[in-house]
Design brief:
single chain; 365 residues; alpha+beta; eight-stranded antiparallel sheet; two-stranded antiparallel sheet
Length: 365
Amino acid sequence: MSTVTERRRDPISTTSYEPAGDAAPATLRAPSASPDARLRQTIERAPVSTEYGAFLAQLRSPSSVHAELVSPTLRSSRDVAIQQRLDAFRDRFSGPYDIAGAKVVAPPMFRMNTPNSGNAAKAKAHAAELHEICARAGVASAAGPAGVGRPTPEQLVKVTQALLDAGKLPPPDEQHATLADRIRGMQWEWGIGVDCAGYTQQAAADAHGAAGSAFKANLTGDIFSGMMNDTRFTSVHITQIRPGDVIHLDSPKRGEVGHNVICRSHAQLDEATRARMFGAETGAIGKAFLAGKGPFHTFEVDSSWGAGNGSMHGGFRRDTWLFDESTFTWASYPAGDRSLPLHVDPMTGPQDELFGGAFRPKEER
């Protein structure tokens, strides 16, 4: 992974959207220069997870330009509330864990219960002992959901803590230098964690409050691939995606599963920031993308991503995607690493998947 030197951060101005039914907005309006006092107070009261932020900072250090992309103007108190719930949900899935009296935060690792998953053999080898450890700790009922990638945050934290109490935390190595990395490595080794559907579905249920009940059906199955025909949800145009909307991606390879994420923020990339992104780290492909007509949109999305054979890029990530409205072309950072050049593939979409649609509960239309 390349190292990016910390630089001065300049403010970013963004453009927000006024929903107008299912059609794309005809015009984009600039946000008010003076947000109302209630919204300002809500933003100022928004909780900040400093330990979690420190973990992500050591995992990958974004440049100032990329950091600006994930700080869009908030449009309404509704969006602020959704973002607070998504952050709280992420934090619930991250501990904290007690290790020799110290409190440690570690975002959840990926786990998908399929025969060809990267840690299927490890999970099978540890299954009996895992259940014994959980039974002794009084959390046996949580072991099953954690082992198939569909636990609640509380279930995964309890099972992980039981493993820590049983002395299963691995020693540090080149890939797992920090306590957070070692905890995530342990989750991978023992076959516990959460898959993309498990994370996204529960996050959406939490984020939408009463309307989130639409996401609570079939928590162990797949509601995402059939959302286009599901009467509980309405399809959303890309340019109208807002915090709390879920995005389904299809795999470009026949027979492979797709991916699901939940939107945390959506903004229009302003011209000043687009100009600053024409730097060395953008790369030739990224520069060609950014030279397009636009307008360009930036999205922050939360999910649990595949880990291959245990990569620390797997599990929970908050990724940044860019979208060129004029060409319907997507750009994203490889494995969510914003220190790497933008990746663009005009034949697919973000992270080399196919955009399958964005949806929200009809009660929130």
